[in-house]
Amino acid sequence: MPNPQDLRIVVVGAGIGGLTAALALQKFGFRPKVFEQAATLGEVGAGLTISPNSARIFDFLGLADALAAISTTPQIQQIRHCRSGRVLMEIPRGEGPRQRYGAGYYYVHRADLHALLVRRILANDPGAIALDAKVQTVEAREDGATLVFTRRPPVDCDVAIGADGVRSAVRDSLFPLSAAKFTGHVAWRGLVPAERVPSRVRDAAPGIHIGPAQLFMRYPLRQGQLINYVAFARDASWTNDSWSARASVADVVAAFEGWDDLALEVIKATPEDGAFKWALFVREPMPSWRIGRVSLLGDAAHAMLPFMGQGAAMSIEDGLVLARALAAFTDPTQALIRYEAARHNHAGFVQAKSRALAEHLEAADPDRFGEQKFENEEALGLFAYDATTVAL
């Protein structure tokens, strides 16, 4: 069997999915090279849910204690009525997920998780990540690939993985893709210092408020120092899908006027430069993610709406399954075929269910919530999915 270190593997994109793939590849003895277009390493200020299906991957990679140290574990989550604040459903968390699924349930600041992954990767290989390396095109071949950059010489490799997000240069250079479709949803996000809100808001259980065509989600980060929120509404006039477009706090307050104070108090406490707005687009699932020895991972392959909180988890799962496949098969092409076979239908299923959940949660009458079966990520069995053992 060839030495894994002889296989030249390139990962394009140093987001959570690409870094998870790189660390997993290192665990199996490979020496991947990550190319990131940004000039500095970092992540946007936003929260992530790490549910058991993704938490067990970090356990497998030896990051269990490090992840717990930077995370918050909710004891319960609540679904509340948009105006009255009445609790419509409680979902127990705490140690329950670990007892049921063998891994925990966490809230984590995206930047903290990103920094943890970077540290571990660079500790294994100080030269593993190249910055200011924007990929222009990728040429896929049966025996490898060539990456063409905007400001550096081309790079040849045996395997190339596009983990470069919804605007993937790797995907767009290889696959004719139908245009993304605007869903009519917009979202605002913000991070609020906890001391800016009343204690009753800080002490309330995290969760969501649901209302007609709107949804508000909030949860704590960094041991309760911050409150992360995402607010969804229908707005056909806004079609900018950039996460970095700033929004007026007054506009968010106006959109949720009359809602329960647990939601409004958080919005009103947002620092004036701390609100962001983006439009939600969807694409139809791709028939395949691979050409030759180039494949896709995470949002580049299967970007999904955020209503199920599983976008990052799908990228993290992809990263480990990809590494397992490359370790299990001596032929890299066969490994990429098996990786896609293991992940394609599962990711497509989560894409579809995330979209359907939005319609359920934003139904016309929140007082009737519970009359239909509630198909959240746990009810659908996603927490039980095990990327460390799934058949290849």
How does the SSE layout of this entry go?
Elements: E1 9-12, H1 16-27, E2 33-35, E3 47-50, H2 52-60, H3 64-69, E4 71-72, E5 76-81, E6 87-92, H4 96-101, E7 106-109, H5 110-124, E8 129-130, E9 135-141, E10 144-149, E11 155-157, E12 159-162, H6 169-174, E13 181-193, H7 199-203, E14 207-211, E15 214-221, E16 226-234, H8 249-255, H9 261-268, E17 275-282, E18 294-296, H10 299-302, H11 311-328, H12 332-361
Parallel strand pairs: 1-2, 1-12, 2-8, 5-14, 12-18
Antiparallel strand pairs: 3-7, 4-7, 5-6, 9-10, 10-11, 13-16, 13-17, 14-15, 15-16
Helix pairs in contact: 1-5, 1-11, 11-12
Order of helices and strands: EHEEHHEEEHEHEEEEEHEHEEEHHEEHHH
- Strand order across the largest sheet: 6-5-14-15-16-13-17
Oligomeric state: single chain
User: What is the name of the CATH class of the largest domain?
Assistant: Alpha Beta
> At the fourth CATH level, what is the homologous superfamily of the largest domain?
FAD/NAD(P)-binding domain
The percentage helix is 25-40%
Strand content: 15-25%
Question: What's the count of strands?
Answer: 18
What is the CATH T-level topology of the largest domain? FAD/NAD(P)-binding domain
Radius of gyration (Å): 21 Å
**Shape, per Cα inertia axes:** globular
Give a description of the structure:
The chain has 392 residues and is of the alpha/beta class. It folds into two domains: 4-76 and 96-178 and 284-359 and 375-384, FAD/NAD(P)-binding domain (3-Layer(bba) Sandwich); 181-282, D-Amino Acid Oxidase, Chain A, domain 2, CATH 3.30.9.30. Helix content is 32%, strand content 25%. It contains twelve helices and 18 strands. The strands form four sheets. A seven-stranded mixed β-sheet has the order 6-5-14-15-16-13-17, with helices on one face.
